[in-house]
Amino acid sequence: MSLNRPLSPHLSIHKRVLTAVFSIFHRFTGICLSLGAILLSVWIVLIALGPTYYSKFQMLSSLIFFKIFLFFWTLTIFYHLYNGIRYLFWSYGKMMDLGTVYKSAYVVIILSILSTILVWISI
Asked: What's the CATH number where 67 sits?
């Protein structure tokens, strides 16, 4: 069998479409939210185990790395929420014209960033 067949260019020649990028990020943020939910569960378990375990978690949570993780987790919460609402509109056949699709994508980004900043300012 000859292996001199031409290879498909696959993803290298295709233009990145905004809706596809948002769909991929929607899935990615869903995974990140699951990981954050596991961390939240660990936090609840450590509270239940008593002050010695909770103090170790408190020490870990005071690190800047942890705060950066929480900031981005907050951003993923809002992105996933607003983009999910956008997908719900699409499920009903609303806001499907190309101009509205692109405008709603930018609205999702702006609302996600503003909501995250508002939450972190209020904390």
From this structure: 1.20.1300.10
Estimate to the nearest angstrom the gap between the alpha carbon of 99 and the chain centroid: 24
Domain count, the chain: 1
Angstrom distance (rounded) from CA 55 to CA 100:
49
Full-model pTM = 0.80
Find the domain containing 84 and state its range. Answer: 19-122
Residue 59 inside a domain? The answer is yes
Could you read off the pLDDT of 20-78 as tens digits, one per residue? 889 999 999 999 999 999 989 988 998 899 999 889 888 988 999 999 999 999 999 99
b vs e for 98-110, b when ≥16 Cβ sit within 10 Å of the residue's Cβ? eeebeebbeebee
What is the C-alpha to C-alpha distance for residues 115 and 60, in angstroms, rounded to an integer? Answer: 26
Nearest-angstrom CA–CA distance, 32 and 38: 10
Tokens of 1: 């069998």
